[in-house]
Fold each of these.
Amino acid sequence: MKKLSARRRHPLAALVVLLFALAATGGLYAAFAPAKPAQAEGAATALSDIEEGKKLYLSGCSSCHGLNGQGSSDGPSLVGVGAAAVDFQVMTGRMPMQQQGPQAPRKPVVFTQEQSDQLGAFIASLGAGPAVPREEDYALEEGNNAMIAEGGELFRTNCSQCHNFAGEGGALPDGKFAPSLVDVDPKHIYEAMLTGPQNMPSFPDTIMPPEQKKAIVTYITGVTKDEPNPGGLGLGRLGPVSEGLFVWIFGLGFLIAAAIWIAARTPKARTK
Amino acid sequence: MSNAHSNKATGPIPDNAATKTADYFDERLGIYGAAKKNLRKVFPDHWSFMLGEVALYSFIIILLTGVWLTLFFKPSMTEVVYDGSYVPLQGIHMSEAYASTLDISFDIRGGLAIRQIHHWAALIFVSSLFVHMFRIFFTGAFRKPREMNWLFGFLLLVLAMVNGFTGYSLPDDLLSGTGLRIAEGVVLAIPLVGTYLQFFLFGGEFPGTDIVPRLFTIHVLLVPAIMVGLLTVHLILVFYHKHTQFPGAGRTEKNVVGLPLLPVYTAKAGGFFFIVFGITAALGGLVQINPIWSYGPYHPGQITAGSQPDWYIGFLEGSLRIMPNWETNLWGHTISWNVLIPSLVVPGVMFTFIAAYPWLEAWVTGDKREHHLLDRPRNVPVRTGLGAAWIAMYLVLWIGGGNDIIATHFHLSINSITWTMRVLFFVAPVLAFVVARRIAMALQRRDKDKVLHGRETGIIKKLPHGEFIEVHEPLDAERLHFLTSHEQPTPAALPPAVDENGVARKLKPGEKLRVRLSRWYFDEKVEKPTAEEYKEITSGHGHH
Ligand code: HEM
């Protein structure tokens, strides 16, 4: 409670409240809207989804991305980015963006999966783009060792230069950064490759076939995320920098303390 | 040996096996004489004198674990397909060097622990060399007659860094290869001969198949052999010169006050060895270092964020990272200032300064006497300031080497960190100098105060007329001596411009500069209290 009341004064509080209100309206609307008769999957669903998506879009996104997704000075055009981009941006909390900064960071998610799908359907209707991957595209294959090894090779070739060898993230110029991949959903990893958010290059299927993407997802989730550190404490898996700090603070720190301790233990009679 | 030693005092030597053995060796090696002379050597006792021991012990640990590693490591670039027990790399093509390091880590009993101990010991070794060196520097222990030993120590430091770098490059993992690639760039940037030198070192284009076996020979044979030799000389010289000591009652330039080598000092040193070994082994067993399996095998087309060298090469990395991208083109040849300056000129100047410092200082002070009593750092403020400035410059470069990690962890822009470090590279040493010198002077002033007015006891007394005073207790003689025994040299002065015959005097070249530097060293000082001052204050009204 205390925490909540303290945060009420946060400059972003108003925005959060607004977003909640928007989300709630969306949810209520969905709940109270005349229930449609059970529909066959396909065009009809898509159509109503597009409708819903458009409404959500107009209230939450159009201020930056323009009324028809054509973009504005505050946000890029969304024509042709596809539902995968929307799912990634919305379901990792990046969109709607709150603050102009070097890069839109991950935040708590404000839309439900359904709303995100509706937004995606709407954006996809503006221009063809990559669709949200299906579960079997990124489902992990436990025990497929060859795939893990291939994924590692691909990861080191395509991703580690920005995201670090263990997926711990890294810095890019001007305050931008490649985030840590440790807690990212397999689906979102796949989508990130598919759509190339912000400063990340995209890896469309023509460049990187779906099999390879799946291998990378498997490697990230199975190895960089879950692997215990065989050598002991991992020190954040940041490489030699954390090792160096550690050796000075703990290694040498202890040794100097030990030296002081030993030197202080002197048979007094003999020193004079 | 101690047997023989103590028996001499108590009476006839019993004719047991130990004595016979000792006698056998004495007749052939003269051990009694040597022992008598050396075991009575006395070592002064101060914690900072044990920093060199940390270096010695960690070096021993490195040698022991290193020899073990050679039993299993294969210094070869032959391509193999990995089929060991680390699943994520199974079926991957890699060099034998990398595969054998994986085997050491995962398939050889105790291998990972030994590798990690070796690596942690290397990090501890180099850090202890630095602090050891700083101790020598700040206390003036490098002065005559120990300048040569300073130089030997300096060479050991450089060789340790070189050997660390070569060791880091051996496993042929992604970070090794990246480091070598940078080293190659540095070699290439050397004007005129760079390209030839690079071909000579690598036996062809980068990376080639020669470099790892060559580095192996350098790492396990060439450099360690030189180091063991230098180390022996270093220690013999310590013995021969006898250890320095801090000033104190009964301590002079001619004696050494401390603990006898046997048994006290040996016991302490032996115990300390086990502490160093224990801490290193604990690190090796509990804390992961250089997880080469996560880095993956080296491939020229791959790289990872967070590619950094071990800490002691970090300052070079930082130097490269913060250098602006300057190049000039001369008659079709590119001179890469962006590599030359940060990787050769800057460290060259910084380390030459260290190597040459004893001679620089001796030249400035004109002091040709021997010194066996140490300076307290506060009593030589300019030297202390210079040391602080050097450390500050080194730290700035070091921090620059981790600019990406700092950027991601503190949400800063890597560009602003780089710019900050560029500015600090010039500003921080000056600031550090000024601050350290000021602090040293202030401490001298406090010492003077203590000498004249005694120690603050914390006891407040109310005088009959209502005034409160704090009771000061005069220092004992030993302490007084300690606080006032240092020398305060007078700065050099230029001789009169004309000699007694009215002929213009010829100055030795550089004499003017020397006098100016000498003033800078010694002009500003906190005059030591004189005996008269002391008497006047302590006999008179006392406290104020
Ligand atoms: C006679 C002395 C030495 C021997 C025989 C030796 C032997 C070895 C061998 C065989 C390796 C490769 C295997 C492996 O790491 O995984 C290695 C690696 C290494 N050595 Fe040494 N070494 C010696 C001295 C040193 C010194 C003086 C330093 C540093 C000051 C050092 C630092 C390293 C480092 C940093 C590695 C990196 C590899 C790792 O992560 O394990 N070594 N050494």
Amino acid sequence: MNKTNELALDNCIKCSICVTHCPVAKVTDKFAGPKQNGPDLERFRLEEPLAVHPSIEYCSNCKNCEVACPSGVSISTMNCRAKGEYVAKNGAPLRDRLLANVELMGDFARLMPGLVNWGGKVKLFRELAERIFNISADMTLPQYASKTFYELYRENKPPVSAKKVVYFPGCYVTYNTPEVGLALVKVMAHNGVEVLVEEFNCCGVPLIANGLLADAKNNARNNMRKLEKYIDAGYQIVTSCPSCNLALRREYGELFDMEKAHRLAEQVIDVFEYLQVLAENGELKTDFKHLSLTVGYHQPCHLKAVGCGVPSKGILDLVPGVEVNDLDAGCCGLSGSYGFKKEKYAISQEIGRQLFQAVKKKGLNRVITECGMCQLQIHHGTGAEVYHPIQVLAEAYGLGSDIK
Amino acid sequence: MTDKAQVVIIGGGATGTGILRDLALRGISAVLVEQGDLAHGTSSRFHGLLHSGGRYAVKDKEAARECIEENLILCRIAPSCIEPIGGLFVEMQGDDPEYTEKWVSACAEAGINAEETDVQEVLKSNPALSSNITRAFKVPDCAVDGFRILWGNVNSARKHGAKVITYSKVTKIHQENGSVTGVELLNKLTGEKKTIECEMVVNAAGAWAGEVAAMVGLEVNVIKDKGTLLAFNHRMMNKIVNRLRPPGDGDIFVPHGTITILGTTSQTVDSADANKPERQEVLDLLKIGKEMVPEIENFRLVRAFAGVRPLYQPGSSATGRSVSRGFALLDHQQMDGLNGFVSIVGGKFTTFRLMAERTADLVAEKLAVDAPCRTAQEPLTDPVPEELLKRGKKVFGIPGAKKAAERLGDDFARVIEEAEQNAEKRQVFCECEMVSRAEIDFVARDEDCHTLGDIRRKTRMGMGTCQGTFCGYRTLGALNKYEKFARSHREYLSVFLQKRWKGIRPVLWGQQLREAQLALGIYCSLFGMERMK
Ligand SMILES: Cc1cc2nc3c(=O)[nH]c(=O)nc-3n(C[C@H](O)[C@H](O)[C@H](O)COP(=O)(O)OP(=O)(O)OC[C@H]3O[C@@H](n4cnc5c(N)ncnc54)[C@H](O)[C@@H]3O)c2cc1C
Ligand code: SF4
Ligand code: SF4
């Protein structure tokens, strides 16, 4: 079948359901919306590749359109390609290149995390950054950890076991919340599974979202090279970040047409999906402590897009004393680098408002969610402490001390 | 009411509008009369192929030569109406290799540049095509937009003083002492009658030419040959693809704007209005098309449509001055002793300018006007200035601006101005074909615009994937404020939708069936049109 039909261009019946599900189109009229940028203009792009609506930069790459489409149109893949075309022709601002280059930023921050974290809180610096780079002075910046996840892993190697998986931690765990990765390694070890790691590159999602497709493809190739031996040996590849999961499972195949992408997709699994399988086979350890903890749960858009349900809630429901309240309030609005951009900050906060209100209305001061960026945004919008569900599970096994 | 002109042209197709322009450029006063909107006839119901002549090279060298000459002229004078995408002739397994050889030398003799190209390359850039292709040749085929050519002719002619009257049917041709003296028109919208006094009448009524000649008691034998075409939802290939074998049914794919057109069939019919595509014709075309595009069933069909070819056959009683095997110019003074009556019949869209030139030469000679033809040199449309395109991109986006510029030509500037001043006008009403509210408003104000169908032909609104489901009611909403659209809204909508459905019904399966169900929900349930009186 040819490539256009693969994206199911012909399936679109113009019902506009995707538009009604687009969180960006809901709050601003600056964005022409998923239908127009996706299947509508795709017909024009077959004649003129540059037929891209300039408002394409307002797409946050949340993928809600694609999830909602009743016709199976690969709307956001079309949008990503279109944005790529647009950026390839018109270039991307330095600001976008910086924000999208999560790895570079992480490596830079590593040199002096204390100073970077401090600088991120000084109003004067932030105002300068806003004026020079158009990076919003109002958005809370992520905090960098003093040691990366890889460093911590080497210091805390799990015991050798016959059962092994590979862990793809992603940039946010690597540079900002290594404790999440560590909790994962411990939880798996507790269940008799040894977690192997490699120094992977950024999965590419921030680059894709900013239209830097060539760079993203480069990352994808590097990661594929590192993953290949594990794929061939039949290892499962575990993720804790939904966006990394989506990239490995879907984007490498759909956007980059990579060999073996298909097999990679079959072997990538979210850590809670993995634990769910253990539970189904009666192999999950259930020696949980009583926690007496009430948390709100926010489902990240990219987890929705992966289509694996909400496996973390299923597992945490097994822990005595833990009450998980589904917030069910849609996109958090941050969408990676999107909400840091000066011209998009207000949009991002407006999208997140429903979610913030849900947290406040339920009187919750602790929230769990799988995505690091959602964690940051919920904390920014509500002041609540936000964790990855694996941290709660580690706590329940008596393996962690992150939950305050 | 009586009007006066030197010449009345009957028929607002490519031929008639071409003649109008030609006469106007020679300074001859002319009025064109068309019973419907411009392009009501075959000139909007064709394949959209500006022939290189390759198709006729073996069978009819003269027609082939005419095609390539006219092709080159039109590319020069009307670039904004033409997509110079090039064409391919492909030989497939089982096709006669000897025919290919014959074809190659015939092309060379006719002056058509046919260059053999690597089959693997062709397949790589056109994955929809069958791997059973054995040889492929590039030719200078182009896609041509019939509507735009027609408006181009008319706009240019008007600038030189010509007049166009649409929605008026010529019902009588007056004659006195062996000379035509005028025509009588019936306005189909108002029922009013009107007379135009003239020295000459040109019958450019295409498939209706026989009926028009009968008004003066003459016989012009036009065989009405219906051809059905299929429109697919997107561009399936990046070049026009012809099957390299003796011309037959269903062997050309033309990527045209956002769609691809496959055709055609051929069937003699009784009436020039017999343009209803049938389901069986669709199935037949798909079957043949599948040989070239094996996955053809996976591509979405948006509609089928049909046109009637006017094929001229010299009758037993009259032998016309056959200027070419492709078309015939009939001088009825010479043939039948009727002064001031001329018929131009047969031909192709591709050769309309040449047909017009020959006709206008004859008319000028009879009127003793000594002015040469200028249509081969004078640009038909002026290119849209870069600066204007830039402004357009800001309000309509890249494709929206480009398409609107091509459609609107000189009027583009005014539409942009409106959109710049009023943000509401930037709304895209037809999202499938990127037509803005500003453009729809502008076209609606045009004096030749009376129905949703007229707006559709002038803008492409309603011609994309949804076939009018969404843009139909949106446009009607915008027309609300115009007095001339004050008739029943239900009627406007039903006429518009029924015309769309005529083409949808024979392809009602797959995704188009889902689309149709949605349309049904919107119009019958939501708007309650079934119950509306
Ligand atoms: C299916 C099909 C595919 C084709 N594909 C191609 C192609 O790819 N390339 C190509 O070059 N050619 C193609 N052709 C041929 C081409 O379309 C026609 O030759 C050409 O459009 C004829 O133009 P015309 O102006 O002579 O006739 P028309 O466009 O039919 O114009 C005649 C007009 O006269 C009007 N009229 C009739 N009677 C009256 C009256 N009494 N009063 C007022 N008005 C009247 C009619 O309404 C009509 O609009 C195709 C034809 C068909 C049928
Ligand atoms: S990916 Fe998200 S922001 Fe982009 S069009 Fe789809 S729903 Fe809207
Ligand atoms: S892409 Fe899907 S949801 Fe959007 S208009 Fe088309 S069919 Fe509807």
